[in-house]
Design brief:
The chain is an alpha+beta fold. The protein contains 2 helices and 5 strands.
């Protein structure tokens, strides 16, 4: 029995991600580019957050954020928090 493996290339880092058993691996990988405490994150808002006990914490006010690997790549909770609470956006 032959098993065909399917891969998707990440457009950010060009890494080949195995999606043979579904897209959850790709979503999990992609979310590491947007999670401020993720190892692959290069987003402008990364410097405003630090790692807490299993959570992401805003260094300006201490608010905790829980990152969802599945929806993390479309979730703008970090930039939205900085803009609405601290009046900080990418152009600052």
């Amino acid at each position: 029995m032959n098993i065909t493996k399917n891969y998707i290339t990440c457009k950010i880092c060009k890494k080949e991600i195995n999606v043979t058993n579904g897209a959850s691996n790709f979503n999990r990988h992609l979310s590491t580019h947007y999670n401020p405490i993720g190892k692959n994150c290069t987003q402008w808002y990364k410097k405003y957050f630090k790692r807490g006990l299993g959570v992401c914490v805003c260094v300006l006010c201490g608010e905790e954020f829980y990152h969802d690997d599945y929806y993390g790549f479309v979730d703008n909770q970090y930039s939205k928090h900085l803009q609405e609470v601290h009046n900080i956006n990418q152009s600052n």
